[in-house]
Amino acid sequence: MTKQACRYAVVRFVPYPESEEFANIGIVMAVPKSNRFLFRLEINDVRYSRFFKNLPKGLYKQLAKDLESEYTAIQRLVSTNKANALQAFERLVVPRSNIVAFGGQRTLLLQNQPEKKLDRLFDHYVHHAFTRKEGHETRLKRQVRQVIDDLRLERPFRPHTFKLYEGELPVQVDLAQVVDEKVIKVIKPFYFDLTTKEGLWDHADKWIPKLVRLKRAGELPERTLLPLDHSSGNQRQLDALEDIKRELADLGTVIRAEEHDKIRSFALDS
To answer: Pfam families, alphabetically (predicted)?
Structure first.
């Protein structure tokens, strides 16, 4: 199958150019052979408004809206052959003195389905730290499970899938204790990677809304334990983690993951 070349660049949010800090927020792509312009943007502003502490309220949300309008307009012109995809891409990524920059410009060869490659690039660059975090959390889950398994409980903790909205929104947890078909305890370990802006908030933004929905639906038991571990980080990253811990504290009991005695006491408590 013939391969086709495409160009892509990473969209960066640079609210304070003087500090040279940035966050990857999207991908733009040109496929010259089929004259296509593609893009994907992160529209969730929570992560960025929390990390950049002095960020004016609503700035990122408005920026994402403006960028989406701009890129959609380019896409429309290209799709109707009123513009050339590669030329539009090259004009777009020219360096400018504003809060949006472009990095990681590369050319690659694709056989088909550039949309799938766009999604993979988005996951890699915008959610990159999340993929690294998973390995740590998998090990943390295994450690917590070993602590519980050593207790040889009559009613062991097992994986459980909550089925919200008649199964439309499944939420799976690895450690749940069920009695008479009712979940009475949940243990949900968390590992947060503080080494990048995306690493901390991606994970929090994935899980906190799920737990909130479970609680509102009356499915999350009052006895929910949240063992937490994290990588090293600077003071600002640690402050951000404290914000997340306060949110988690509304959903369960937050402890340090190494507090095995508390995990045992929680599991044994009838």
So the answer is: DUF3037
Helix (H) or strand (E) holding 263: helix 260-268
Domain boundaries defined on the chain: 4-126, 129-268
**H helices then E strands: how many in the chain?**
8, 10
Contact partners, residue 219, CB within 8 Å, separation at least 6: 162, 164, 183
Residues 71-101 pLDDT 10s: 999 999 999 999 999 999 999 999 887 899 9
Give residues with Cβ within 8 angstroms of 221, minimum separation 6. 183, 184, 185, 186
Structure tokens at 5: 């070349």
CATH label, 129-268, candidates 1.10.287, 3.20.14, 3.40.1350, 2.60.40: 3.40.1350
Q: Rounded to whole angstroms, how far apart are CA atoms 100 and 79?
A: 24
